[in-house]
Write a structure and sequence with these properties.
This is Transposase DDE domain. The protein has 360 residues and is of the alpha+beta class. The protein has 12 helices and 10 strands. Helix 1 runs parallel beside helix 12.
Length: 360
Amino acid sequence: MAHTQGKALRKGNEMLAVLQKYLSDWHLARQKFVVLFVQAVLKIGVKSLLEIAGAFDSSAQRTSSLRRIERFLNGFEFSISLFGNFMLAMLHLRHQGLVLLLDRTEWQFGKTWVNILMLSVSVEGMSVPLFWRVYNKKGLSSQQERIDFMRSFFRYFPDLCITCLIGDREFIGKHWFSYLEQEARIPCLIRLRENLQVHYQGKQKPIKVYCRNVKMGQYSYKGCFQLCETNLHVWATHLRGEWLILGTTSKDLDAFAIYKQRWGIETLFKALKTQGFHIEHTALCQAPKIEKLLFLLAFAFVWAYKTGLWLNERKPIRICPNGRREFSFFRYGFLFLQYCLLNDTQYPQLVKTIQLLSED
């Protein structure tokens, strides 16, 4: 027992050194809790809070660990800007031009809907969570919700250098486009539905009408159209039986090359849900608690992601016949960390992965 507790203590101390580097303002007890929680969810995924408590590397009773989790979710107030800068510092992104991705995901628990609107940053084929809001409602976000969301983001992160904001087909609207162009002053790159009505040379037609001559696999600039009283430069291609039509407020953007990065947030949501942490299994539905839980999972996500990158340099991920990797960098790192945390013989390897988080 003493030997096992000693190894658990060493694991915790290695990770504490990382937190003390980036989150030095936090109380030591809070830092220790984050370490215990993150290591627990990497071992077992996000199941019930009681199961997570049982996976803590601690001599405390499961019920005591559960109360500790509940105190964090009920009462802890963390600094969003501190967390965001923590993420940017670990990924060495503070002074780079950032590509931001906006998307949302939702699920239902009983009669309650959980709807997460998330802003993430694209980095090396992945998307890392940076800012989010949770709503107890079903369906699309309103334009005003998105505007308020972005205003809050810029209050916390006023000095970021942003190349553009990528969004999917639901993120359109007159007031939304006006906000991005005139107040936020950041270019946007939005996928457009093919039946959207646009104005061009005094006529209003579905955007697909102007894309009919685009051949399979051809990437074509179609001109500047007006949508929701905003001028959008439109690019189109035809892939696997469907249109990919992109609208951007800046003609200077390499639209298709940049839009490929949107896949990263799909991978992120899979990591948070079905292919990683299974966040929906916690039975939590109160928005403030889920927002705090996401902070912990974001830290775990970055650890797994950086571990996956490191592993891929040592042993590249197998490429499948369809040309895709067998695993995402996150999944590759997640499975390795899970193995290391569950096997004490892998402690030296675990230490190497922790050191990745504090590299300058």
